[in-house]
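[#protein-structures] MJ: dropping Cyclic nucleotide-binding domain-containing protein here for a structure pass
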Amino acid sequence: MHRVAIIGSGPAGLSAAAHAAALGLDHVLIEKTDHLSDTIYKYQKGKHVMATPAQLVLRSDLDFAAGKREVILGAWNEGTEGHKVNVLMEAEVVAVTGQAGDFTISIKGKPDVKAETIVLGIGTQGNPNRMRCPVDDNATVQYTLDDPAEYIDEHITVIGGGDAGIENALGLIADPEQRNTVTLVNIGADFPTAKDANVKLLMAAEAEGRMTVMRETNTAAIGADTITFDARDGSVTVPCNRTIARIGSAPPRAFVEACCASFEDKDGRKSVVPGTGVQFASADRISYPKLTPTFESTVPGIFVIGALAGYPLIKHCMNQGYDVIEFIAGNTALKPADEPILEQKFSGLPRGLARTDDVTGWLDYLREHVEILHDLSPLQMREFMLDSEIAAFAAGETIFRRNDPGSSLFAVAAGAVAVEVAPGTDVMIGESSIFGEVGLISGRRRGSTVRAAKPCVLLEIPRSAALKLMSQVPAVKRTIIRISTERQLLQMFGSGLTPADLADVMTHSEIKQIKAGEAILVEGDEGRDIYVVRSGSMIVEKKVGGKPIFLSYLPAGSYVGEMALIDGGTRTATVRAAIRSEVLRIDGDAFAALLQKHPALLERATRDMAARRQVNGFIEDRKADFGGAVDMYSSVANFLIENGIGEATDVLLIDEKLCVGCDNCEKACADSHEGLSRLDREAGRTYAHLHVPTSCRHCEHPHCMADCPPNAIHRGPDGEVFVDDSCIGCGNCARNCPYGVIRLDKVPPKKPGLLSWLLFGRGPGPGEPSHKWSHDNMPAGVEKPKKAIKCDMCSGIDGGPACVRACPTGAAIRVAPEEFLTVARLGAER
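AK: finished. structure tokens for Cyclic nucleotide-binding domain-containing protein:
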């Protein structure tokens, strides 16, 4: 009968066993393989292991510092031997039974082990997430990477933007002699779960052309020698000899829940009786066991530490291993290693609000009073708070102002804030809710001014921490999506609706990801559901004479489908995604009930329906009059969609029937922007007489914002996307822009005025100066750094965009696509 049995020799288990040995506790460390720390052992050879968080002190009888995998494993092996840890190797645990003080651990092919207490440190790496797309029988798909040097001259796809995926991808290109062609695929635009150092290395490799990084991309199918993606703009197929999937892992739930559980026969299958065994926080696959602050599970005497407790970082795991042995040995007064850091964070808060004014009291208070944190464990709360800030605000104090930069999320832990949605009009957000979610999702500047309506306590969560939390705790993601969706519907439909009015609609709705080109409505189909475009854009088409004719464009914030709901009958048009989009599908019956209760909403929907019916009628009635004009317009519209207008909010178009090639547009742009033009008139594509020059489209969700280290790219009050003076010239924005509209260049020296040029010939004249003139006139000893140059819609310049004002023939226009892409405009023009 051992005092403690530790199952799993990862960083947490090793640290626990070493401390048990140091304290002289009778113990046994049980490991199913023939080596220690299997998770680190399976890291790729030569991997640099980081020791984060840097501000956290290490508590362990084993040494640990950042270094190569082999060095760390060697040190742990020596430390384990030096402390005379009692290790039982090649011992696979198949069951745990009994109770505190008398547990039996059944081991495959070996005698049982008895223990008074058990520490589970088995991690999650033995239960990796698997690819869910179709996989060819002859395809090579693997979930680990041992030695990157083994792979030579292969097309390799690494799926997953976490630390493991990034490190695998970097390892495969470390030696140029390997000649591997590596593509890393990430489902999102950001890398919230990866360490900053790894993300910087990845960006550098991409910038140098040593690797391809595909963002906002899902894997559709893996073939024998190809792989197909659902990318932002549609389907993409590339060569692929090997796929390495590093898409996370989940706790080995079946084994853990069965520990000391009662069983019953259910439909001929043995299953755990609910409420017995080790219980988890929720039914989500990546949920973690319920634990006390001392790591004890719902089964007394069974403790859980490390990645299985929701703490994946090595330093955290080793500290827990030390702490849990202290708790088992009777030192219940021990405080966690992060206690001083958290004490400092909570020190300025009002006394008496939480049950106790210590770290534990505040963590419990936040979990209870902030909705998005309800499902976090005490351990997850501690890690989360290391990345977040909390502060008290007096009544009337400004939290942030409209157009301020910022993408963090705020949660109201106490009190309330007032959101100024219009001058003199405030919306109250009270305790438990969140605000700032628009900046979190889109990266845009603040859309409203927010002030404390009364004394309040606010939790500020940086964007990276919020995205990480959403990826690791499904309940958090669901809550943020629900709140943001509810607010979007209230803003869109208005008509005096309240959140309570939308309760049934929200219950009967779902968010769907729509691939580029995929239809959400098909002309002639039955259906009553309503679709709201949350992100991306849709195009509406109607068949005339068997051919699809473009009708209109639906940007984010639009809804469609009300015609069949209100009028009955089949769908009157096909609606498909212009780019990869996200929609909210609302059950038609639930929306019909809402219309019946709110006549003002029904009136609005009827007006919108009348406008759509007018466009449908226009096509039918004027087709013969226009001859091929409608077909031509439809072709032009589809050309524009293919060239990025589907995600634009403002785009420059040139009518080549009117353009005389004077280049006044480029010259005016340069003279309005420090001598550097933001557009290239001749570049870009043309269809019929319509030309799309190389100029910023000011995308709805700008790709250039995805990875800007100094956060220098923002969206202004009129929708303009601009680069501020904090730009460091890293070039990430230029690489991320799919339309090639961002350039890196040095700002030239100031030119002499126009009159000086006209009268005396001084300076290079209107427009962008030549590189030779800029070089020759640069002040001696001044080396200006390059910075990102892009269109800012002439923000702050009277009269609007200089390119449009300077065009002598009216050939240049800047338009929002929803204003331009409508077939009714064709009728107005004719």
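MJ: nice. The first strand starts at residue 2 and ends at 7.
AK: one more thing. Residues 528 and 827 are 30 Å apart (CA to CA).
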